[in-house]
User: Fold this.
Amino acid sequence: MRNKETIKKPDKPSITDQNAREKSSDTRPKNNDFCVHILDNLPGIAYRCLIDQHWTMLFVSEGARDLTGYEPADFIENATVSYNDIIHPDDRERVRMKVDEIMDKQKHRSFEYRIVTKSGETKWVWEQAVRVKGDNGTECLDGIVLDITDRIHLNQALRLEQQRLGRVVDSTADIIFEIDNKKRFVSVYGKGLEHIGLKSEDFTNKTVIDIFGPDEGSPRHQAYQKALEGETVHYDWTHRHNDQTLYFSSSLSPIINMKGRVVGAVGIAREVTEQKRHQQHIERLSYRDQLTGAYNRYYLYESIEREMSLADRYREALSMITFDIDIFKRINDDYGHAVGDEALKNLTFTVTHMIRKSDILFRTGGEEFVLVLPKTSQRAAMKLAERIRQALAMCTHHPYGTLTCSFGVASRLPGESFDAWWKRGDQAMYQGKRHGGNCVQAANEARKTT
Assistant:
């Protein structure tokens, strides 16, 4: 372990708190980078930082206050503290190695580590980051940091429950179970059995396969096998009961006899359905535009590589429709932003009900949208764009009347990068705007590859 006092602190620029707060405000991303509403309400940190020894922050969301005890402005350009300062000294090298993986493979990564808050409290956090280009072309990281201290404590509590297994009685809300080395249930206890619609006697003389089926490739079966090989494992699983999907978190440890042989395993399962739904809600906030419900720009960057990879692998068409509301500023100016928000929601509702489940709608800016269409040729994408254009133009809403949009349609060329592909669609859309708007324009098919 490195001595904390020997770690060189970054030089602190001489800047007043007021100036730091103003700089934090200046660096707040515009709508075409992040949805401000999501950032302000995210129960954690959303950030953009430089890839340097201090993880110098260019933007930090308001959640930094609750998570770290520091004001968001304290991190901007290391005004008061650098983000590297609050990473636990024992975890700093591991965090840097994870970032190196992101740089090498150019894909997002998630990892866990500890931070030390302003008050000296140690917290566990989960971070997901992706490599991006900053406004001036500088390599940056965009990501989110969420507090998982409660989850870590839960795992510790599960291990403690294993040690106290002999004192556990049927009144426990969890499920306590033991299997022998043939994967046969020896005993099963706990009121948690009620959650899966079973009783202790239902497991008598039954094997894991008898109860849960023959899918030996499932995480549950793999966990049993690893435990019988002498490994302590943690795994999650689901169970359908009363037409409801229940989520469980389990821990399984080997039972070793006096001769050092594994003779079975003991485990504990706890229902975590509410926690799972809360986690899904957090993920939805991270990926969805809060106003319209469409996916946001962050999720576009995260998901588009997968869509491009699938299209390349199976040699399938992949198209994009880029569209923008014509003269949207006039709606805001004449009727106010509340009416403008309603117009955006009306547009999203119309488009969502005209596309397939496999099509993905993103709101990438104030009135700018992108529609990604897997397995769709440019000709089919042009027809869809025209149908959407007509549907929007025919709908009348009080008090602003109708919405018209300009559409740019681009089918991805073999080997074409996402930026080049999107740029072609964007250029086609603006070409339509220059011709008066309310039209569909095909993209230039000049080959632009990486």
